[in-house]
Design a protein that fits this description.
The complex is a heterodimer of chains A (about 160) and B (about 600). Chain A contains 5 helices and 8 strands. Chain A has about 160 residues and is an alpha+beta fold. Helix content of chain B is about 40%, strand content about 10%. Classes of the chains: A alpha+beta (about 160), B alpha+beta (about 600).
């Protein structure tokens, strides 16, 4: 059974250690702009949240150069860097902003689940990132999806001096 | 950057001290265009090293007139590096308000007329939108800096403060409202695999502090300090506060904490994202209520609830003034009012008294607006007490002009008597170079035993003959590494198995730079930077005569577990410390021999004469 990357976003403190680990794992440098996972912090609300590829595969069909495919072993989207032209179609269709362009090579940056051993999961100090059997991961996905329907009860900017 | 200087200073405030030593003439006015403001990172900033989200600012302080430095967390330091720079050196001054934008390697000075007068929170919002990158980091001053309040802070990422010494005042004098940075440059590593292994280990080690510092934040220690008789209260009259429970980190977590927040690269997450959701002290969600703030603005004036304290902390952040200095002057003003040295008229009809939180908030507004007595208090406690006269100096708690923060020379440990008197190049500060209480108060050796730290530590109240001078020297030189390497001091205080010991730092720095630097090498680099900062101060006229404590911090404590504790033999403690540091006891200057050892012969010529 493939395993899936899921999160427990309430625990995220916004430290961005995952971004550094990701850029190191793939490029041996520290550069959040080359990370496939990105932490978003909303300045006036209690939100620190890792945004990552959920491996939906929407980009696979959209790629005009057939550079993307599903790795059947890990379930991850695989980028063929020979074929990728950096056209940006995958970034265009990605609903989450999880696909981006590598500032160095100008090719697609899409999470490859570190070939089945995601570095971000291993290093996250808060246990926000989880890599679970897909059955178990599904529950986290349902919770994440249900959050979209949660009513916002936190006033973002009360009228205070 | 110059490689020869990098090898000697590595980076951070060590390298910056060299720039300031070379670039500033003795005696320049800190608020004149001649002053230089440096924003600096260290080699470890922005890497996977735990707690490497630091930016340090260095300048000549308008509050003290000597070496000034101040640090903030957040993400400015790392993002400055990702923008392609290690340092920003700001010289001169602008005629009209400007801000500096450094994005992806290109720097631009832009008009900031529309930002002048805006609070830190407002200005940061506008700036990020204007440059079109909500992920960028802004270092910004508020109206405090614009009005040249002498302890104005530089605020980073909205709520992280480089608070001390008036860096924001220097920015205000240069009409520089903000610096915004971001980019996609990368940090390369000489030995990537070795570095990664060392960093991973370090993250798991430092991450152990999540259960202590992470859970209740820096203010989590407040209750314990109070029980030990180490919680400065009532303008340092005592170190015990009966209502400390109400001001504790536990209370904060229970009622006002929205979530924990971490600076870039930090596995601890001591940041408190808090708010007061309703009532007279309502605030927006923000990062605030640190230990120092809570003691200085909450406990010192004897507030009985966290709500006005959170409000005051928020106001200081968004108006851009240092919470420590602000709290110190407020407590001073209450005492001066009580003694009739400040009149109702001076205070605009505000009746100041211990425990009156609303009066404190009103006084804070007077300071922010520089109105009536607030205008004088905005000059800092030294100038205010000199102006008020009539014995006000006796209870004005500062050293070399820097307001004493929330640890005590009598109640916490006698190491603080040395720390405040001489340990810190910038004056009375507990955290630069390090919280010296780790040795005998918290009883940790920090991995310094092999470097000669006296062990086991003595009673925290013992003054001389217990190796306090030598211990402080080692602690300082170790702590100095934080501001050189660009990391947070909280990654360096705690048990040996939860911090970046010198051995761990040596492993990280060596793998990053490719230079083999042992613990000893690092300590020597640190010594060079630390000594150079002292030389800077000596050039400005500082000597042993200035290495004093305010009278209040020598007097016996009046209540609580440490009642009766006082500082008896400051001079003898200082003698031990000068000796350990290699400084001349009489003059309080680093000796020629010492300077030669460190390769600082050129400074010897200036401070001892050719």
């Amino acid at each position: 059974m493939p395993r899936s990357l899921v999160t427990n976003p309430d625990k995220c403190t916004g430290c961005r250690i995952c971004e550094l680990a990701c850029s190191y794992r793939h490029f041996k440098v520290f550069n959040p702009a080359r990370s496939r996972i990105r932490v978003v912090r909303l300045p006036h609300g209690p939100v620190d949240s890792p945004i990552y590829c959920i491996q939906c595969g929407l980009c696979i069909g959209a790629c005009p150069f057939s550079a993307l495919s599903r790795d059947l072993r890990t379930g991850a989207v695989k980028v063929d860097f020979e074929k990728c032209t950096g056209c940006g179609m995958c970034i265009h269709v990605c609903p989450y902003g999880a696909a981006s362009r590598d500032p160095e090579s100008h090719k697609a940056l899409i999470c490859d689940l570190c070939d089945g051993d995601p570095e971000c999961v291993k290093i996250c100090p808060e246990g926000v990132l989880l890599y679970l059997d897909s059955d178990d991961a599904a529950e986290y996905k349902r919770i994440a999806f249900s959050r979209l329907q949660r009513k916002e009860i936190t006033p973002l900017k009360p009228d205070a001096r | 950057m110059r490689l020869d200087l990098l090898k000697l200073y590595l980076g951070g405030t060590g390298y910056a001290a060299r720039i300031l030593w070379d670039g500033l003439e003795r005696g320049i006015d800190p608020l004149s265009p001649e002053n230089i403001l440096i924003a600096c990172t260290g080699p470890l900033t922005g890497t996977l090293t735990p707690c490497s989200g630091s930016v340090e600012f260095a300048f000549k302080s308008p509050l003290t007139g000597i070496f000034g430095q101040s640090r903030a967390g957040g993400s400015f330091g790392p993002k400055l590096k990702y923008a392609g720079y290690d340092f920003i050196i700001i010289e001169g001054a602008s005629e009209k308000p400007v801000y500096l934008s450094i994005i992806d390697g290109s720097a631009e000075i832009r008009d900031a007329s529309h930002l002048w007068g805006k609070t830190v929170h407002e200005a940061t919002d506008i700036l990020l939108e204007e440059i079109g990158d909500l992920n960028a980091a802004a270092a910004c001053i508020g109206p405090g800096g614009e009005k040249l309040i002498k302890y104005a802070s530089i605020m980073v990422d909205y709520d992280r403060a480089a608070g001390r010494c008036g860096g924001g005042t220097v920015m205000g004098s240069k009409k520089l409202k903000a610096i915004v940075v971001n980019g996609d440059h990368e940090i390369e590593i000489a030995k990537p695999d070795e570095f990664y292994e060392a960093a991973k280990e370090a993250i798991s080690v430092v991450g152990r502090q999540r259960i202590s510092l992470g859970q209740f934040g820096t203010v989590g220690g407040l209750r314990g300090l109070n029980e030990s008789g180490a919680l400065p209260t009532k303008n340092f009259q005592t170190c015990y506060y009966e209502k400390a429970e109400k001001m504790s980190g536990e209370e904060l977590a229970r009622r006002y904490l929205i979530k924990r927040r971490a600076c870039a690269g930090c596995p601890i997450g001591c940041g408190r994202y808090v708010w007061v959701p309703s009532g007279p002290y309502i605030t927006p969600p923000h990062e605030g209520a640190e230990y120092e703030t809570t003691d200085m603005i909450g406990v010192q004036p004897m507030m009985e609830s966290l709500e006005p304290l959170i409000k005051a902390s928020y106001l200081c952040n968004t108006y851009g003034i240092d919470t420590i200095s602000a709290g110190n002057v407020i407590a001073f003003a209450i005492e001066a009012y009580e003694r009739g040295l400040i009149t109702d008229e001076d205070a605009g009809g505000i009746k100041l008294s211990w425990g009156d939180a609303d009066a404190c908030l009103k006084l804070l507004e007077l300071i922010i607006e520089r109105k009536m007595i607030g205008d004088l208090l905005a000059e800092g406690v030294r100038r205010a007490s000199e102006k008020i006269g009539r014995g006000a100096k006796d209870f004005a708690c500062h050293v070399k002009g820097l307001e004493v923060p929330a640890h005590d020379t009598r109640g916490t440990t006698k190491s603080f008597a040395i720390q405040y008197a001489i340990g810190n190049p910038r004056g009375a500060c507990h955290i630069e170079p390090i919280w010296v209480g780790v040795w005998d108060f918290s009883r940790s050796s920090l991995g310094l035993r092999e470097l000669g730290l006296p062990w086991p530590p003595p009673s925290r109240f013992a003054e001389t003959g217990v190796g306090r001078g030598e211990a402080c020297r080692l602690l300082w030189l170790y702590g100095e590494l934080a501001s050189i390497l660009g990391i947070c001091r909280f990654s360096m205080q705690g048990g040996e198995d939860e911090i970046l010991t010198p051995a761990r730092l040596s492993r990280l720095v060596s793998a990053l730079t490719g230079w083999e630097l042992s613990s000893q090498d690092l300590i020597k680099i640190s010594d060079r930077a630390y000594t150079l900062k002292r030389c800077f101060n000596v050039r400005e006229g500082v000597g042993r005569k200035d290495d004093r404590l305010p009278r209040r911090l020598m007097e016996p404590l009046t209540t609580g577990p440490t009642k009766g504790q006082k500082v008896e033999s400051l001079d003898a403690m200082l003698d031990e410390t000068y000796e350990a540091l290699g400084w001349d006891k009489k003059a309080g200057k680093p000796t020629r021999k010492k300077l030669r050892e460190l390769g600082l012969e050129d400074t010897a010529e200036v401070i001892w004469g050719g």
